[in-house]
Structure formats: C-alpha cells, structure tokens
C-alpha cells in the first residue's frame, strides 16, 4: 500500500517548490482553539510515507468532511489544491511554514487502510538524505524571497512576484476562499459585487467615515471596508461590476450581524493596500452570488437575520418624512410590497435616495442581497442596511422566471401578507379570547400578537387622559407647577403648555369569554374617532360629549390586533394585553374565515 503515497512530496512543498496533486496519509487531527462564534478549524498530521508534517491546516470549507467522518486517521487523500503561507511565532527560529489544504479527494478511507504506512519522520530531521527533498517526477524550482506561493484554484502551484504587480504575472492570484489571517503576501483578482454609500459617524472617540464593497471571484466572496483616508483613496476607484487586483489588506473575523456573505473573514483597507483595475473583463468571475430564499420563509426567519430574496413589486407606498429620535435628522422612507411564487407578500423598506429614486412603473423585479429581517406587531418585514445590495430588474434566471409567472397571474390572485401593517391588517394569527388564553400566548420569552373579533363591554373613563410633555418625541407626564408652568422630568424643562394623551382600560368579550385590555394614545384615538386634546378638554369642562364618545363604542363590535405578554409586578406575574390597532369589522372577510373554518371542521369530521 506504500506505493499509493508520493514520498518526498511534503519536503518539496514545505521548501516552497511545486508538487502537483500529492497523495498523503492522515495520521491525526486536532481542533484549533477558537473564540466563541468563530467557525471551528482543524490541524492535521500528514505523512507521505517518508516525511511527517504537523503544520497542516484544513480549509474551513472542508471541515464538514472531517466532522462527517470522511477524514479519519489512516485515510489516504490526494491534495488537489493547496497553498503554503508563513507565520511568525515570535521566537529566534524565524517564520514557520503552514500548509493549507484547500481541496482534496479521498483515495482510500482510513477504515480500509487501518495502519500507518511506512516509518515517516519530520521533514526537518537531519538524517534524511538530501535527495529525499526532491519530487520524483517534477523538478524543484528554487524559492525566491520576493515571491509568495499561491494557488491558481486548479491544483497546480504558481508563484507571484509582488514587485511586478502590474505585469502579466499578476494574473496568478489567490482564490478568495483561501484567504486567512495566517497569510501575508497575497493578491486576489475579484469583481466588485456591490458598493455601499459613504457613511459617517460621530462619537466620544471622534468622527470618521467609511464604506464597504463586496468582492467575488470564482471561489467565493468577501467584504472589504475602508475607513477615513481609505475612503478618499479608494471610493471613486472601485466601481460596481468592475474587476480589480487587490493586495495587502488586513484580515479579521467577519461580523455576521452586518454581512450575509459566506466567508468567515473580512478585509480592511490599510495604508499599504494596493488596488489596480483590470482593463479587460474576466468573464470567469461571476457578477454577484445570491442565496435566495422564498418570501414565505421570511416568516420563520429570526429578527436581525440577513437574507437574500427576489420578488415582484406589487405595490409601493408614498414617501414618508420622519425625524430620527437620536440624531434629529429628517429621514425619508418608502414601503414596497413584494410577492413571489410562494404567494407570500412582504414589506421591504427603502430609505433616503433609494426611496426617492425608486420607479414603480411596470411592477419591477427587485433582488436584495443582505436585507435585514425586522419584526413588528408579530409580522416580519425587511429593510436595507449599509451593506445590503439592491438591484432592479436584474438580468438573472430567477428574475426572468418571476416575471413570466407574475405576468401570467389572474387579476384576483390572493397573497398572504407576512408583514404586520401599520393599520393592523390581516397578517398574523386569528383566534378567540379563550383560545389565546388556552394557548398561553404571551407566556414565552417574546410577546405574541394575534387578531380577534370582539365586542367592547365596558370602558373605564376615570383617569383616561393625562397631561403630557408637548415635545413631539416625548410623551412623559408633566408636573403642574401651579405657576402656569408644566415641568417634564425627562426633558428637564418647563413649558407653558402641555398635550393630552389617552390611556384607556377596557373590557372586551366574545362568545368564548372576556378580557381586560389597555389602549394607548394612537389606538385609542383610532377607536374613539376623537383626538386626545378634545377628550381632555371635554373631561375638564364636564361636557356631555365626554360621555357620548365612549357610549358610541360600548357594545359595538371591532376587529382588534392584540399584543400579549406576561409582565412582573413585584412578586406577581400578570398577563397584559394591549390593543395595537382597532378597526370596524370587515364582515366579508369574517364570513370567508367562518366558511373556511366550517369546511375544515367538515373535513375533519368526515
């Protein structure tokens, strides 16, 4: 079985020379210590029958092979793609060479081999004959101090001279998938998939600006970020869909909260970074890599998760002007309703220039990479963040299939919304009050939301309004100074006026039972059909209109959207239900639901 291995291959490779497709044996594996949240990496002990090497790392994309039992001890493998890098160990012995296996083929499983082949020793042992350092078939080439060994992604070894960055030699590059912090000299040839706008920040440590680009080659993708001076140096140079040669960036672990790219690492541009445009487009490099999910799958996605999806813009809302609570800056946003073949509808929120520039004509196809899932009122929506990619009518197969499907739909096709609408629409769970209690809605770690048809039984009108701070973003109760001034402790200011805010306690009921609920200002104004300042003034003046406004809703049916959550009051836990929105019942929709329930029961009984 010794003839399966290639003696001398390890010594040749570790000397920095070429050896195509060496066949070696795995004699041991060991996990590399890593920080929490990082992907586990593994170190190997390999043998070519003559030499051992314990400075061998398995690329992360091969980790599943080891974890699934394909790379057990004594397994014989053919290394079809690899690279050698150097790391400094801060001792007098100089840098240590590390062999990184990027791709391999299992020749014979360890269970079939069952033993160590030969009597190998470490390649650095002095009792090894000098000729053992040469490969049997491929002549060795002397290594150069000005070159670093790289892989061309096909299993052969290449060498690139960094000093000839603009020469044809620069086409011999590292694949993105092979990059790691253990390497120093490398060059990648990659296409810019997306480029973010320049963003600024200001905090106690100072001010600055940054931007990021997502890069892709035939092996994988990675994000690169530039700060401060790098923004001025590289932002205009880097253009979407253009190909560049890039080297001398800092690599660190990727923050998965802000990136959906399939790479454990991300790059940072430094003062030494070199970026050179490639004049001729390389068609072998893809333009963008999506990992699309269907829109109905967003319902099960966790809030904060970054996802890729594509949908048809069925409808678009108007541009809304908002004021940021933290920066007090004016913001513009627009909500799009997207649908796909799963017949789910989801809300996508655009901000700033994207909201203003979006053209709704012709129901465009929208593809999003790295959209952030949000949760509100029990529904799921998606918004764009700094690292998101947003493309309209992209020339990709998924978009063409989606266009054909949508154009062939009947005009009355119904879609299921998985996004909670601001008006408390039909998204989410429907149940009776008793079903909500029986299913223990609100007893989990997060609040539960549901819709119900119910009747207002009684409204507590004492203390239903309070005097609040007049500042638009503050609703804190003010203290009457009895001097014509009203003090807000939150704003630490005194004001000559105030605003009335509503807070109602109400008993509602259906055929299954009753429940006390709370209504805050917006939902209360919506249900009562009157403004808080009107109700406060009527109460103060003891006007008959004060009683009439509550009498109008008593014993009247409503469609309510409720939030249920158990809250602790001292040592006592109580279920609190809050009305998020209130609408007059849609009787047609109610009848459709009742018919569907009857059919379901009939099917179960048969």
Topology:
Blueprint: H1 9-14, E1 23-32, E2 41-47, E3 51-58, H2 63-67, E4 76-87, E5 96-108, H3 110-113, E6 121-122, E7 147-151, E8 157-161, E9 187-195, E10 199-203, E11 206-216, E12 221-227, H4 229-234, E13 243-247, E14 250-253, E15 265-268, E16 274-277, E17 306-316, E18 320-323, E19 330-339, E20 344-351, H5 352-357, E21 365-376, E22 379-383, E23 389-392, H6 397-407, E24 416-417, E25 429-430, H7 433-438, E26 448-460, E27 465-468, E28 479-480, E29 486-488, E30 493-495, E31 499-502, E32 504-510, E33 513-519, H8 521-528, H9 532-541, H10 544-551, E34 557-569, E35 572-583, H11 587-605
Helix pairs in contact: 9-10
Organism: Nesidiocoris tenuis
Domain Replication protein A OB: 296-393
Region (Disordered): 115-161
Which structural traits does this protein have?
OB fold (Dihydrolipoamide Acetyltransferase, E2P), eight-stranded mixed beta sheet, 11 helices, 4 domains, DNA-binding, mainly beta, 35 strands, single chain, Replication protein A subunit, DNA replication, elongated, 606 residues
Number of helices: 11
> Largest beta sheet, briefly?
8 strands, mixed
What is the count of structural domains? 4
The backbone outline, from C-alpha atoms, is: elongated
CATH topology of the largest domain: OB fold (Dihydrolipoamide Acetyltransferase, E2P)
Mean pLDDT: 81
Helix/strand class: mainly beta
Strand content: 35-45%
Q: What is the number of beta strands?
A: 35
CATH architecture of the largest domain: Beta Barrel
What is the radius of gyration computed over CA atoms, rounded to a whole number of angstroms?
33 Å
Helix fraction, binned, reads 10-25%
Could you name the ranges where pLDDT drops below 50 across 5 or more consecutive residues? 125-171, 422-427
Domain Replication factor A C-terminal: 449-594
Domain Replication factor-A protein 1 N-terminal: 5-108
Domain Replication protein A 70 kDa DNA-binding subunit B/D first OB fold: 173-276
Subcellular location: Nucleus
